[in-house]
Amino acid sequence: KSDDQGGGLGSLLGARNRLIGRAAGKVQLLRTDLLALREELGADFQHILIYCAEDAEQFGQCKEIMRELGVPIAHILGTDSVEKRSYALQDFASGAYPILLAKKCLNEGINIPQARHAFILQSTTNEMEFVQRRGRVLRKCAGKTHANVTDYLVLPSTGEINHSYDLKLIERELTRAMEFAQDARNSAEGYAIINKLKDRYAG
Questions:
Q1: Paired sense of beta strands 117-120 and 48-52, if any
Q2: What's the Cα-to-Cα distance from 63 to each of 25, 27, 60, 137, 194, rounded to whole Å?
Q3: What is the rounded distance in angstroms from the CA atom of residue 58 to the CA atom of residue 26?
Q4: Which of 97, 101, 115, 148 could bridge to 137 as Cys pair (CB 3.0-4.6 Å)?
Q5: pTM, to two decimals
């Protein structure tokens, strides 16, 4: 009986992790952020990486947003052939497609130094994964002085914390935020936001 209960809890937590990874609010925030970035960059709106969660729904939502905004995209999946990935990466690097939409890939062994902006929709507690994703956009390239990385956090409302899992979720999300903030140009701003969140949940 205890094994069955453990398995059931594991399934529920696994399902919750998937929901966290593709939280609907992230996609709408992405749309808002892309609109602001396009307004800021104008003709230089290109070399943008978007990491999606590992499910078809969010990937489809992102593609729909790009169609709505009229932005051509290249996209690669973990199941794509090496040849298909190569063509997509070449098109992205050349600027033919300003945005590269990626799902279940780009964590390791792929070099895209032209990338200047990254939006990370897939939450992960695996330090190696988020360091590798960040590394894709931090590679050096001629004329590139820095890169911008936006990682979307998923946190429960303060009135909804009723399980130790929620506390672990908060800890994991904020730990990842701290990792991203520590070497950032706007680290002071990042730490200020993180500390406010810590104070909110501590109360």
A1: parallel
A2: 16, 10, 5, 21, 31
A3: 9
A4: 115
A5: 0.82
